[in-house]
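cron nightly-structures :: item 1 of 1
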Amino acid sequence: MQDRRDTQNRLFDEWPDRYDEWFQTPVGALVKRYESELLLDLLQPCQGETILDVGCGTGVFTIDILSFGPRIVGLEISRPMLMRTGQKAKGYPFDPIAGNMISLPFADSVFEKTVSMTALEFVEDARGAVRELFRVTKKGGTIVVTTLISLSTWATRRKQKAEKGHHLFKKMIFRSPDEMRRLAPVDGVIKTAIHFLKEDDPDIAPEIEKEGQKNILSTGAFLAARWVKP
């Protein structure tokens, strides 16, 4: 198990710069905008509460959550990524912790809310990871998990690149909305976003996204699930 965790660490350690740079491209900025809007709509972060951010990466979305005034405990398996988040979060109530989402280093029922942003696709035991999120969340608290959906053209192209040897995409597991629903012990809300493609004109992409959300399509590249712990 330790060797496997070490492999995951190395997998993400080289990505902080490329990850941040992609979100600064025209299409990356649009993706970030719509993913953040959906995340915040489901999470509803509030002043003074404590939120666990599992797989916080380089803090691209962590900072958006922090802007609403909660304290965030950010857990990340890659130390270079965690350090990048810490740098961005200076001045905010942010506590970085290195760890793995399949075995969270926290007691039961300690967070008002938990969130995991596009980390589940790198976990085989998705049900176990979601169980851990429920475990550390207080009764009545919110759990939000986002992932990359299996039904989108984005996923199809990533799978094709994986077959050609892309080392990151080879590690990814794309799940459908129905598969995500079955991960939790309670019913939840499932929504998708990013209905445009990477090569679409950034000036036209917002209209494509608007239509996709209006028609409640389940084929957006980005899926977000929200559950409330009973």
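cron nightly-structures :: done
The radius of gyration is 17 Å.
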